[in-house]
Amino acid sequence: MSTPVTGLLVRAVGGPCLVQDAGRLGHAAIGVGVSGAADRASYALANRLLGNTVGAAVLEVTLGGLEVEATGVVWACVTGAPAPLEVDGRPEPTGAVLALRPGRRLRLGLPATGLRSYLAVRGGLDTPALLGSRSRDTLAGLGPEPVRAGDVLGVGHEVAGEILVDAVPPATYDDRPVLRVVRGPRADWVADADRLVERVWRVGSASDRVGLRLEGEPLTAVPTRGELPSEGALRGAIQVPPGGGPVVFGPDHPVTGGYPVVGVVVDADTDRLAQLRPGEQLRFRWA
Amino acid sequence: MRLLPYGDRALLVELDDTAAVVTVADLVRAHPAAATLVADVVPGARTVLVVARPGVTVDQLRAIVPAHKHRDRSDPGACEQGLSQRETVIPVVYDGPDLAVVAALTGLSEREVVAAHTGTPWRVAFGGFAPGFAYLVGGDPRLRVPRRDEPRTAVPAGAVGLAGEFSGVYPRPSPGGWQLIGRTDLPLWDLDRDPPALLTAGATVLFEEVR
User: Fold this and answer.
1) Distance between CA atoms of A122 and A77, rounded to whole angstroms?
2) From the CA of A22, how many Å to the nearest CA of chain B?
3) Fewer CB within 10 Å of terminal CB in chain B, N or C?
4) Which stretch of DSSP H or E encloses residue B131?
5) What's the confidence (pLDDT) of residue B85?
6) What is the Cα–Cα distance from A7 to A102, expressed in whole angstroms?
7) Residue B77 CA to chain centroid, in angstroms?
8) How far apart are the C-alpha atoms of A286 and A11, rounded to whole Å?
9) What is the DSSP letter of A195?
10) Under an 8 A CB cutoff, do B134 and A234 touch?
11) Closest residue on chain B to A185 (Cα)
């Protein structure tokens, strides 16, 4: 019998659970987008706490529901949405480095706030890389398949240094955040771009890693503008399709798009977007 | 040429035509400072999106965008300037379901459509619809046809289509609204190849009829 892989045996999965890392950079010309962790700061924090290399792969867990069993000694850490965390039924804090002995089970419940938690292991997850990244791009269908019960995720060797910090405070998320936005290159394709910052928006239920669909009083397209030739897109870009309901692009956005971009969320604020749940409200202000 | 800010980490360069897009995208990629300043260059139909690396400002990006002289859109040689050495020949069986429609729309016979499609080199302008899909420009202007009114829910991999000024080959099965004139067996997207995309930015493409 072969030696079992040191890693995580997935016992149960709740919401979408994806392998993510820092993304695939520089492949737009062949139609491949960046993808990568939706909340980059929480992702990077988990790797830093574990002494991992920048860019090591982690699990992006949506609304908890994940249960994994260590198949060797595994050092782990959860950041992002503060999901109730248990190891063999005993509560543990998020933001803390945990040692999982073989057979120990780590379980993530439903976070009270936020949407995405990041479960990292020391050494990173060792799934096959594609174009320099292990990220699952949900729109293009590239990278590791979504994680399912029964999967075994091996631990890699992406270690950069020692574990220096035991724990950081869990993340907290404010109600109705105000995100900074820069006027977009096609702001003049709607008659009322300022409505973006004047109204309260609600996150629609069809939102995902491709985009956050915002519900509220729609913007009004300038009728004489016609059709925009496809142009490059970026995470945080706010596109307005003909119906007037804005879509804020997430990490798996199409590489090029044909609807006018009326605003672009400031890069640093796009991590907060990634923690907004369907039904939550948000506002924008011009940067 | 216009430079439009695109948030706090990208710049959208607006140009007159797709030929200028190909040129400017090449020039930005080749700039000596590109490796340190630029995370990605995203060509579009009339624009080039230049994305900054973390910590690089939009003003720093402005400095490396080349001044591009206006070129007459009707200039037939525009696309042939700077033709790269990379030339890909794509063998096509011209039996697409929309070949007759394209003939009717263009006023050409089906044989003339095939002759026009194979008669002029095309060039990869930009991507974005799916991994490995390349929008090809610079072909015979008589082949400009609108998209189908009703997009197909399933277009097979290898289908060769036309839409507007573009031609393209579907890298994998997907929905699609282009007019399909033929098919190729050549894999456009192969994960065991490096790069997986057959057609990369700036490459020249020649279609060749096979029966």
Assistant:
1) 8
2) 12
3) C
4) none
5) 56
6) 9
7) 17
8) 45
9) H
10) no
11) B4
Q: What are the residue ranges of helices labelled H in chain A?
A: 40-49, 195-198, 270-273
C-alpha–C-alpha distance, residues B163 and B42, integer Å:
20
pLDDT at B79 over 60: no
Nearest Cβ partner for B127 among A29, A131, A261? A29
Q: Closest residue of B to A264, CA-based? A: B7
**What is the arithmetic mean of pLDDT over B146-166?**
91
Give the span between the Cα atoms of A144 and A10, in whole angstroms: 15
Take residue A194 and report the two structure tokens written for it.
């300022």
Which residues sit opposite B81 in a β-bridge?
A: none
What's the rounded Cα separation, in Å, for the pair A115 and B127?
31
Interface test with A, best of B14, B18, B73, B126 (most A CBs within 10 A): B126
Closest CA to A38 of A14, A20, A56, A64: A20
Contacts of A97 (CB under 8 A, 6+ apart): A49, A50, A75, A76, A77, A163, A165, A166, A167
| Bridge partners (DSSP) listed for residue A108 | A85
Low-confidence ranges of chain A (pLDDT < 50): none
Task: Give yes or no for a contact between B209 and B94, defined as CB atoms under 8 angstroms apart.
Answer: yes
DSSP state of A189: G
Using CA atoms, how far apart are residues B50 and B62, in angstroms rounded to an integer?
9
Q: Do A231 and B9 touch (CB under 8 A)?
A: no
Domains of chain A: 7-155 (no CATH), 178-286 (2.40.100.10)
Instruction: List, for residues B114-127, the tens digit of each pLDDT value.
Output: 999 999 999 998 88
**β-strand partners of A59:** A19, A119
pTM of the model: 0.90
Question: Over 60: is that where the pLDDT of B71 sits?
Answer: no
The residue written with tokens 């936020």 in the block is A114
Domains and CATH numbers, chain B: 2-80 (3.30.1360.40), 87-209 (2.40.100.10)
Beta strands in chain B (DSSP E): 2-5, 10-14, 38-43, 47-52, 87-92, 122-127, 134-137, 152-155, 159-163, 166-169, 174-176, 179-183, 204-209
